[in-house]
Amino acid sequence: MKFGQLFAVAGCTALLGACSNSSLLPGQDGTLSRLDVEDMGIAVAADSQREYSFTDKKASFWYGMTHTDNWDDWHAGWNIAKRRLLSDYTVGVDGDTLSRREAEVTVYPYKIDRVYTKARENFYMFDRVELLYVELSDVKGDSVWIELSPRLISAGKQGAAGIEFVPKESAGGVITLQPFKDVAYRWNGTRLMAPADAGGFIISYTEDGSAAQVAALFRRDHEKMLRERIDRMNALVEKSNPLSSDNDTLDKAMAWIVLTTDELITCQQGNGIYAGLPWFNEYWGRDMFITMPGAVFCTGQWETARSIFSDFAKFQDRNPESETLEGIIYNTADGTPRFVTDVYEYMQYTGDTTYLASIYPAIELSINSVIEHGTDADGFLVHADADTWMDAKRQGKYPCSPRGNRAVDIQALWYEQLRSGAKMARIMGHDDESRRWDLAADSLLATFNRMFVNTADTLVYDHLNADGTPDLQYRPNMLYALDMVADTAVVTKATRDAWRRLVYPWGVASLDQNDPQFHPYHENWHHYHKDDAYHNGTVWLWNNGMAMQRMIEAGQQDIAWQLFENMNRQALYEGAVGSLSENADAWPRKGAQWARRSGTFLQAWSNAEQIRVWYQGFLGIRPALLDGCITLAPRIPSALNTLRYSELIGNGSLLGAFERTADCRIYEYRLSGIASRLKFDIEDFATFDLAVTDGSTVRVKVTDSELTASVTDRDGKTTSKIAIAPDPAKAARQQAMNRYFEGTHFAVPSMKENLPSLSRYFDPPLDYSSIE
């Protein structure tokens, strides 16, 4: 089997016979098929144990392994506000240890369930409560006990509320261990023992001596606290993002990815989004604003969006004389442009212009400061060698993948910052500023096509060097700038070439494998430092979203679907439960058929881009409420024959359904709580608009020869109908595109042994501090 064929046909089902005449959506008071968190359990076998994580949505997370006893990874266990508290615990019955290696384990979004021969253990965290609950039930014995791993804590001593431990990295706080029920217990210096019916154990963290009150409150309200956590999660997968299809992995994988992404939306230092777990539990502008469209907009979390924008804006340096604010690192040229474009996208999703007045000063300053201090004579945004997302440096000084001072993706972001800013300036009544920014964008666009686009060789340069020469390294960054490219032939070729050269079945590589700087494996310490590989060959899953988007825009959704489904399978069956990793090797290791994951086990932008491309790409839902419309451009892959879904937009929601039969395709939509003009871009037919009121349903039926659309109001009365024939020009363009992309396959590892990166061998192997 070739790499390009892996998982390509998974999820295909037989076509239904005849085109349905009945509605695909439930009645006005009905709901879509629901996937409850109780239905989302993933059983994990002992011989394929997996990582898992939970957060309290505030500042702490738990990082565990399903079947490992006394796990001692650096970030294992309980971490809070970038401090490690507790690495692990062990439980037992009478004199026996309950070994995880022998347990039947199922992971749910809100708990891990381990079934032993002598007991059942359920482990929980709760929203915004610094407390762990290790529940023990079905106990076959007289007593239960727990031991905390001593690696990160002091020796335990009896306290007023239970056994107290001082975390070595948080000396101002106390971990308190006590039985769940307020019962007598015994402490032998390492082990806390309680009656079999004690219900398990509470592990709390406090800094104000309130452990007794915390425990008492938990004992009283634990069922309510658990219900609130479950209800919050169910609201995301039932109200914000319900999905029902005929695919064996899609529904469950997307629900899991939505929930593990939401784990990362916290209030650790104001409101923000962790970059990733376990070691990126902090907010970074670049990562946060790449993540927001998928994590926050597609899930309809408008209050969260506003709070993140406002809290982030507080860190804007408003002093023109300063280099940096104390404790704040500004080594990113793309964080601020994405902040501005995200604010505009938020307004398009919500129609909310009232919020703009409070955030506009930060937007205005960000654009005018760059125009005054951060652009060159051509209007390009200039930056340092490692100020793009490819930001690794050795010894904090030497860029591992220098990208000159004008990177292609940065110019695309700067262009969008100007355009978005100009539109928001008009809303604010700043017409002169709006015109000035639009003129800057016009000039930038023309210069970009002259200096970054090589029409003769049909390519887009990755960056310009400081001396103005174009760099020919082949990286995925030009995918982010294709909207600026005027020559459609260049766009089409760039999309196909990137897929063939960079897109492996496991994700998008950061450098072409034929480049002399290519490093095939992320971690290969006998040959090179990890940072040297980080952006020089290592796969970055967050780039999958844009690679798939460009394929979908070319009408090649079946090609894009292969990568999309591979990521869903990773979330369900490989690596950390329910999540996508930061990285992967570009090449499989010797003897393997699939590349090894690496980096953080749960990376915000990897997950979020999978969510975004599903809603904006495959489903084609693109709200533009500032313009009074919602574009619907569905590109449903042939692997899917039935779909029902919903997405929150503005103050309401859009419900959608799709059915493919042997005779036709039916697309059905209903607005709930909002009214809008719907702009349809469906298959080979010309685009058309329909004005739709709250509660109305649009049914579009497509055959090879005709598209018919009808609108019925909430009372079932037909208010409008249209019928159109295929658009010959549009059909011809798509047929030409299909011929061009025919045979397009994933990149195939060449497995050369004479790579420069493998030419040296270090024994002992290098480590993070090595300078070779």
Count all strands and give the number. Answer: 45
Helix content: 25-40%
Termini Cα gap: 40 Å
Uncertain stretches? 1-12
Beta-strand content estimate? 15-25%
Strand order of the largest sheet: 1-8-9-10-11-18-15-14-13
Sum up the overall morphology in one term: globular
Which structural class best describes the helix and strand composition? alpha+beta
Give me the number of helical elements.
14
Mean pLDDT score: 94
Q: Rg to the nearest angstrom?
A: 27 Å
Provide a quick synopsis of the model:
This protein has 772 residues and is α+β, with helices and mostly antiparallel strands. 28% of the residues lie in helices and 24% in strands.
Could you walk me through the main structural features you see in this protein, from its secondary elements to its overall organization?
There is one protein chain. This protein is α+β, with helices and mostly antiparallel strands. The chain contains 14 helices and 45 strands. Helix 5 (335-350) runs antiparallel to helix 6 (356-373) and helix 7 runs antiparallel to helix 8 (431-451). The model is unreliable at 1-12 (pLDDT under 50).
